[in-house]
Amino acid sequence: MAVERTLSIIKPDAVAKNVIGKIYSRFETNGLKIVASRMAWLSEREAGGFYAVHKERPFFKDLVSFMSSGPVMIQVLEGENAIAKNRELMGATDPKKADKGTIRADFADSIDANAVHGSDGPDTAKVEIAYFFPALNVF
Ligand code: RTP
Ligand code: MG
C-alpha cells in the first residue's frame, strides 16, 4: 500500500470545544503522522476558495460562513492509505449517520458543524495541501 498525504482541517466547532488534542490522538494511534500544521482564522474569501468545488451548492454560503466563524487547525497527515484512512476515522458527513467511534460521531453536532474536513481523493489532496501549505514540497 502506498504512503500518501492528505489535508485535514479541525473545524471551528471542534476547536471551540477544545478537542484538538483528542482528534490528533486519533490520527496518531491510527498510523497517521502530522507532517505539517498551522492554526488559522480563515477569511470568507479563503474559505470560499478552499470549498470552490461546492460553490453552486445550496449549502455553500452557510459552509463558508461557518468555516470563517472562528479559528481552525489545518494539518497534513501522512501514512499508508492516508486519504481513505482519514475519511474512515472522520465518519459520515452527517454525524447522525456516522459510525460509532468516529470523530464526527463523537465530536460533531450537525451536518454543518461537523468537526473535521478531509480530502476525498488523491487529486483533491494535492490541490488542498498546496492551498494551505504552498511551500511543503520543499521537504
Ligand atoms: P468535508 O469536505 O468538509 O470533509 O466534508 P465531506 O467531504 O464529508 O462533505 P462534502 O460533500 O464535501 O461537503 C462539504 C461540507 O458541506 C456541508 N454540507 N452540507 N446541508 C447539506 O446537505 C450539506 N451537504 C454538505 C458539510 O458541512 C460538509 O462537511
Ligand atoms: Mg468534501
From TrEMBL:
SUPFAM superfamilies: Nucleoside diphosphate kinase, NDK (SSF54919). InterPro entries: NDK-like_dom, NDK-like_dom_sf, Nucleoside_diP_kinase, Nucleoside_diP_kinase_AS. Its EC number is 2.7.4.6. Its cofactor is Mg(2+). GO terms for molecular function: ATP binding; metal ion binding; nucleoside diphosphate kinase activity. It holds the Pfam family NDK. Signal peptide: none annotated. Residues 3-138 form the Nucleoside diphosphate kinase-like domain. Its main location: cytoplasm. GO terms for biological process: CTP biosynthetic process; GTP biosynthetic process; UTP biosynthetic process. Belongs to the NDK family. This is Nucleoside diphosphate kinase. It comes from Sulfurisoma sediminicola.
